[in-house]
Each structure stands twice: as C-alpha cells, then as structure tokens.
Amino acid sequence: MTIPLHNQVEHAMAQLRATQDALDAVQRELSETTTSSTSRNRAVTVTVDGRGEITAITFPTGAHRSMAPAELGELLVETIREARQAASQTAVSLFTPLMPSGTNLGALLDGDLDLDGMIAEALQAATAPLPGEQSGPQEGPPCLTT
Questions:
Q1: Dihedrals φ, ψ of 52, to 5°?
Q2: Contact 39, 75 (CB under 8 A)
Q3: pTM of full prediction above 0.70
Q4: Cα–Cα distance, 122 to 128 (Å, whole number)
Q5: How does residue 110 score in pLDDT terms, banded at 50, 70 and 90?
Q6: Residue 91's closest CA among 113, 106, 111?
Q7: CA distance 37 to 80
Q8: 86 and 94 in contact (C-beta within 8 Å)?
Q9: How far apart are the C-alpha atoms of 31 and 17, rounded to whole Å?
Q10: How far apart are CA 25 and CA 109, in angstroms?
Q11: C-beta separation of 78 from 86 below 8 A
C-alpha cells in the first residue's frame, strides 16, 4: 500500500468513525424524544416516542364523554396520525445533517423516493475509475516485434 493511498484510507476510516458517532448520538437523542399532539377540540392528546409508537393517550378535558363513538374514533385516528407525522419530522430534522447532500430523507420515509435510481447512481459511482486510473479493461505490456 502506498503512503498516499494509506493516508486516504486512514482519512476515510476517521470520517466513517465520526459519522458513526454522530449517528449514535442522533439515535440516542431520538430514543429519548417524545412528541405530543392534541386534537383540534382539545378532547384527546396522543404522545408518541421517537419511532412514532404510541406511548400515551389522554383525555384532558372530559369532552370525549359527549362524543359519538365514531366521532371519537375519527378524532383518535387523526390525532395519532398528527403525532406520528410530528415525530417523523423530528427524526428527519435530526438525521438530515448526517445524510449526503441532496438526499431527501422525508421522501424516503414517505415512500416517494426513487430507490432504483439512487442504487443505479451509487453503482455507477462505485464502478467509476479512480482519478489517475484508466477506464476499461487493462491490457498487458506491448508486444515487441522483430
């Protein structure tokens, strides 16, 4: 291994360790995060953890007692959806600085990202020749003829 290549590998490994440490810190922060959403009429509050899992449902005003079951059910579904969306936005805001530039993490989580295109781009970049390398198949030394 040449010294410049060795230095490049060491630098890449240091960047990888720093990125892993940053990801670990964000995951710890997210695991300690809760998000709450209160319904528009204040009848129900839903709390979710950093992954969007429901951790609590409360009825702060008692207004739910006079609601029809279907109305309360719709209100719960809507409030749960809002709490989960808020938790997702928090996760996106925490992870976005760690992603490669141009990565739309929100679209990825929503299922709107072109993963096939991303994979094709990554494969193309991975198989591209390094600076100073020749592209295409390598030939042996030229033949000498007499």
A1: 90, 10
A2: yes
A3: no
A4: 10
A5: low
A6: 106
A7: 7
A8: no
A9: 21
A10: 20
A11: no
